[in-house]
Amino acid sequence: MMEDIRVVIGESKFDVRACGILKQGDNVLTTVESDGAHTLPGGAVKIGETSKEAVVREFLEETGIKVGVGSLLSIIENMFIYEGKPYQQVIFVYEVFASDNVQPNRGEVTVEWTNIMASHSLRPSQLNELVKQATTTTQHFINKES
Questions:
Q1: What is the CATH number for 81?
Q2: Model confidence over 21-61: pLDDT tens digits?
Q3: Distance separating alpha carbons of residues 104 and 80, to the nearest angstrom
Q4: Structural domains counted in the chain
Q5: Domain span at 84
Q6: Distance, CA of 40 to CA of 121 (rounded, Å)
Q7: Would 140 be classed as within a structural domain?
Q8: What are phi and psi of 127, to 5 degrees?
Q9: How much of the chain is in helix, strand and coil states, percent to nearest 5?
Q10: Where in the numbering of this chain does the Nudix hydrolase domain appear (predicted)?
Q11: Listed residue (20, 19, 23) closest to 132, CA to CA
Q12: Among 72, 80, 77, 30, which Cα is nearest to 51's?
């Protein structure tokens, strides 16, 4: 079994994450974290796995939806404090596609459709603007929370 690319370095944690933007009408599919925050379906990339492969696997595990992967929309360097310790991620954000009118089902996490224009609670915060854009040009963001 492949291990997640997730390591502890001194007092800090580091991981590589991949997620996808799945739109349906004016909504985007989001996952609800244990603290109530929303993010995009996805998760840690595993050793030997590409970020595209991770998006497909994570979508299926979390939502029960089989997706196809489109353009790489963003790379986000995400630095924040988690459980009182520094945490750093590199996040690959892709556009993903599924059949029309997909309904999330037997996933591992809570998922819901969130109105794109009303979206303001996604983490990291750069995702809130990214889901509203129509571009397929790759963008680079740095999110550094104190």
A1: 3.90.79.10
A2: 999 999 999 998 877 888 999 999 999 999 999 999 999 99
A3: 29
A4: 1
A5: 6-133
A6: 11
A7: no
A8: -65, -30
A9: 10, 50, 40
A10: 12-146
A11: 23
A12: 72
How many whole angstroms separate alpha carbon 124 and alpha carbon 80?
9
- Token representation of residue 63: 């939502």
For residue 105, what pLDDT is reported?
67
How far apart are the C-alpha atoms of 128 and 116, rounded to whole Å?
8
In 3D, which of 93, 90, 53, 91 has the Cα closest to residue 73? Answer: 93
The tokens for 145 are: 């929370």
Structure token pair of residue 8:
């502890």
Residue 138 lies in a domain: no
Going from the first residue of the chain to its last (146 residues), give the mean pLDDT of each consecutive group of 10, the final group possibly shorter.
93 98 94 86 97 96 92 97 95 91 72 87 93 92 91
Domain annotation covers residue 113: yes
Structure tokens at 116: 């794109």
- Tokens encoding 138: 């790759």
Q: State the CB neighbour count (10 A cutoff) for residue 15.
A: 17
Task: Report yes or no on 142 lying in a domain.
Answer: no
Q: Which two tokens stand for residue 143?
A: 């999110």
31 and 62 Cβ atoms separated by less than 8 Å: yes
Structure tokens at 46: 């595993």
User: What is the CA 118 to chain-centroid distance, rounded?
Assistant: 18
